[in-house]
Amino acid sequence: MRGWLRGDSTDGHRGWREHSARLVTLALVLGLPAGLLAARLGGPGSSSRTIELVARQPAVGGWSRERIVVSQGERVRLRIRSEDVVHGFAIGRLGVDAGTIEPGKPVEVEFVADQPGEFTFYCTTWCDPNHPRMRGILEVREAGRASAPAPPSTPDIALRGLDAPREASAIPARRPSVMRGQGLFNAQCATCHGGRGEGAGRAPAIGRPEALQDWSPVQVFELLGGATPTGVKRMSSGAAIHPQPTRGWTDQDRWDAVAYLWSLGTTPDRVDVGRRLFSRNCAACHGERGSGDGPGGKSQPKRPADLTNARTMLAGTGSLYTAKIRRGGMGTGMPYWGNIFTEEELAALVDYLWTFSLGTQD
Amino acid sequence: MRSPIRSGQTRTAGRRELTRWPMVRAVLRWRSLNWILMTAALAVLCLAIATSLAGTAAGSANFGIVFVWIVWWGLLMGVLLPLGGRLWCLICPVPAPGEWVQRGALICPPGEDGNGASPPAGRPRRIGGGLRFTLGWRWPDRLRTIWLQNAGFVIVALFSTLILTRPRVTGWLLLAFLVGGILLAILYERRAFCRYVCPVGGFIGLYSLTAPLELRVRDPLVCQDHRTKDCYLGNAAGYGCPWLEQPWTMDRNAACGLCGECLRTCPKDNVAVRVRLPGADLVVASGWRLDEAYKAFIMLACAAIYPLVFLGSWGWLKEWANLGGPQGFGLYTLAFLGLNLVVVPGLHLGAVAATRSVAGLQGLPVRRLFVALAYPLVPLGLAAWMAFTVSFVFANASYAMPVLSDPFGWGWNLLGTQDLAWHPWLMGWVPSLQAIILIAGMVGAIGTADAVLRKFTAGRAAVRGLVMQAFFLTGETIFFLWLYLGAAA
Amino acid sequence: MRRAIILAVFLALGAVVLLAPWPMFSPAGGEREVLVRARQYAYDPGVIRVPKGARVTLVLESEDVTHGLYLDGYDIDLATAPGRRVRTSFVADRPGMFRMRCSKVCGTLHPFMLGELVVEPNTPLWRSVALALLAAAGAVTYLAVGRRGTRGREAA
Question: Which of B276, B338, B396, C139 has the fewest CB atoms nearer than 10 Å to its CB?
């Protein structure tokens, strides 16, 4: 008995010291990892509806889930973690943006899925040559339905001639200046079209954002010079020749005026939104300055378009570029953005794009 | 037959005995101490294995990677090894389960049925050293060297790029160690794994020769007349030395794991723990062996390769080491093995030949001097490894705090530190620290070379030999200084 | 006694090596702009040399995934993803070799993604080398001198 109290072993019996030691050891050695793992299954973050999403580079798997299904009105909580490099997470058209996801630092994002439909979630940080393909579908089903409504279709995706080669008949010799264009406009055009192009009487409101969506800069350039624009483009009045073409203006003057007209159709805030969208989604391939020399472009089937190339860019219209971005590149590597960008985002992006070739950001 | 007293055992001048203080003696003889330390370490090891195998693949957020390759390695190389020699072996959890199975107990000693006496009816007879549940096979004589440990270290070092960065690989490696330790404990006698197999034991055994801590018998004359040798065979109060060491002849730290069993078993209270000046064991000639010399070469070669591969700016070299392609890794393996096994020993042979000729030692066999002069490389190698450790530990220690809150990397925040950002510590001080460590190691190496040479010669010849040795040792130190403070390109 | 003198002499020499001003052999200052391309797992250029006192602008660009650049000793931290250049400027007033480390986890070998910035002249290196040589000479002199006769300190 005394030996047992002392904790010693006598005659082969084990004292309390030995027995309690065995308990403690077993508890620690098995209990610690087991306890932590059990906590994972029933502990923080495992409450209802925390959906775990693991991000990996597309070469080794991409998103751990291709499709997430939730019910309309549900409060959704996502925990996103990366296993290799820095990724990003956002859901198009829902305004959900989790920012960057660094390996080892999972990010939680919570939102209410109040609209039914199919939305695209995508990685927002270049992570791999196949980064543009790192996407999945968030399906928000109405109560009682077995599937979600399809995403809205846009008619201009079927626009013919989307991939036709473009070539402007003329390009500016120097980068156009919006400031000079403003001076010229005020001197010559404002009397009919209004101080900010808001229109008056028979002179159309050319300063409104949608006014010049279907006009290319070179067409307006030709119109101002008194010629019939390429492709016999007609104004809203039906005529193909401008009633008051500019006299005494040089080519550069006309380009300056075109640049000013384009700047009237947007605001500095919108261009800024476009700049941020471009930097996050487009610059990796198209390059920070839009010249098509981004590192991501090296692994695509076709070299990304040079957005600074005035010869091609000035022959296109806002609608054309909006459609191209929506539809994607049909095998060139340009991703399909139709289900990701809202209409406002697309407009802002195209407004920013013009700054590469037309300089409308000054 | 009386055992001879070794010269290394009588050198006690200038050494302070710690076990003279009753508190220290009581703590070191406390049986529960080993269990407490090893269980705590075992819990950490199990957590490391669990997180490595099941947690995130991002190494910097995985407890296993951070706490093994940054925290443990930093503590080992920076504190435990230079100050305590094989002190880690006292805490190491790898042999713990196996030893507990062998003894049939976690803490308690063999008791009265231990060691040789007939056990009570129904109880199994105890095998040598007081052990119970082991086959107790004798470790083969031919393997009673550290060659196995040398090979193990070289292989682990060769694949270290993979091991250090992939949690899964670390997890399987740690699990293999743990299982291997248990298996060998059940098959073989005592801590054969620790003494003859563990790759870590290989180098901390060699480097413990420089440590300022030692465990020796107080008076070898007392042991000469002692017949029952309880320290090796065990008795009721404790087990026989698990390290298969014979304390009464022990004159070096290399194989002593500081477990303290001999402190508990010695009926004459003749075992002491002392502090001394660093490097004392390096010049104990009875211990000079070729396998240890090769360990010194391997450690020195790796101390040069690691900064080139890991701290250098050559991405292609890292890719080769990272198994990025068969040709790249094949070339890397050839170069790695060549440097470790041929080039560094070859350069050493050149230095030895030069020293031999200027010191007039042509009568001495080359091999003897080759082995003896490998020991000055030990302080320099330790310094080089400490310099390497300083570099990456200071840079990455800040990963330890977040990983404590989120060991698996799944987004937990147990202690509230999960979102602490990575930030290198005191990087401006690192180059100065590295230079001080390397120069201190060089001075230790030169001092060791002097002591070694004076075993063979004296006077002017010894001085000439020393100058030649200093020439090579200084050259090697300058090479390391360039690796850490200069630009490799 | 002789040994004490040797020790004192070498310590004094050591202090001189540590504290003496170092002459600049090439012009100091100036402006340098360096484009650093980051990829898994190295920087290009891997080694950058600038003279002490120069105003250095580092422009970081990534070729494959998000990378960072932390500069030891100057406590500078940049990070970027492909398609965006970031830059920072500082005056290289501290000489020596400073490592550039990746500060954004970029894959398995991330902790070993390193480059080097050398602010020349690399006085810490040269002083350390000089100290090493001095320490070696001092150690040899100390050990060689002051022994009584030919007896070593311990019985062989």
Answer: B338
Structural domains present in chain A: 50-151 (2.60.40.420), 163-362 (1.10.760.10)
Instruction: Tell me which chains share at least 3 CB pairs under 8 Å with chain A.
Output: B, C
C116 and C48 in a single domain? The answer is yes
Length of chain C: 156
Task: Based on the fold, state whether residues C98 and C115 are members of the same structural domain.
Answer: yes
Q: Report the half-sphere exposure of A60 (CA within 13 A, side-chain side).
A: 11
Q: What is the DSSP string of A125-154?
A: S--STTGGG-EEEEEEEPTT-SSPPPPPP-
Q: What is the CATH number of the domain that holds C103?
A: 2.60.40.420
Q: Is the CB of B58 less than 8 angstroms away from the CB of A37?
A: no
Kindly state whether residue C66 falls inside one of the protein's structural domains.
yes
Tell me the residue length of chain A. 362
Same domain, C101 and C136: no
Residues C47 and C94 both lie in one domain: yes
Q: Do residues B93 and B41 lie in contact, with contact meaning Cβ atoms separated by under 8 Å?
A: yes
Chain A residue with minimum CA distance to B39: A25
Phi, psi of B83 (to 5 degrees): -95, -30
Query: Could you say which DSSP state residue B412 is in?
Result: -
- pTM here is 0.90
Same domain, C35 and C55: yes
- Give the gap in angstroms from C-alpha A286 to the nearest C-alpha of chain C: 8
- With contact defined as 3+ CB pairs under 8 Å, the chains touching B are A, C
- Cis? peptide before C45, omega within 30° of 0: yes
Q: How many angstroms away from the CA of B216 is the closest CA of chain A?
A: 27
Residues C37 and C114 in one domain: yes
C-alpha count within 13 angstroms, C-beta hemisphere, residue B2: 9
Residues on chain C touching A100 (C-beta within 8 angstroms):
66
- Please give the residue range of the domain that contains residue C13: 2-22+128-144
What ipTM describes this predicted complex? 0.91
The reply to whether C110 touches chain B by the CB within 8 Å rule is yes
* Chain A CA closest to residue B409: A104
Domain tally, chain C: 2
Q: Within this chain, do residues C88 and C107 fall inside the same structural domain, yes or no?
A: yes
Question: DSSP assignment of A208-268, as one string?
Answer: STTTTTT--HHHHHHHHTTSPPTTT---TTS-SS-SS--SS--HHHHHHHHHHHHHHTS-H
Per-residue pLDDT of chain A (362 residues; tens, 9 = 90+): 444 444 444 444 467 888 889 999 988 877 877 777 777 666 555 555 689 999 999 999 999 999 999 989 889 999 999 999 999 999 998 989 999 999 989 999 999 988 899 999 999 999 999 999 999 999 999 887 777 777 766 665 556 678 888 898 888 988 898 899 999 998 888 888 888 888 877 788 888 888 888 889 999 999 888 888 888 778 888 888 888 877 788 999 999 999 999 998 889 999 999 999 999 999 999 999 999 999 999 988 889 999 999 999 999 999 899 989 988 877 788 998 988 999 999 999 999 999 998 875 54
Picking from C42, C122, C125, the nearest residue to B315 by CB comes out as C42
Same domain, C13 and C36: no
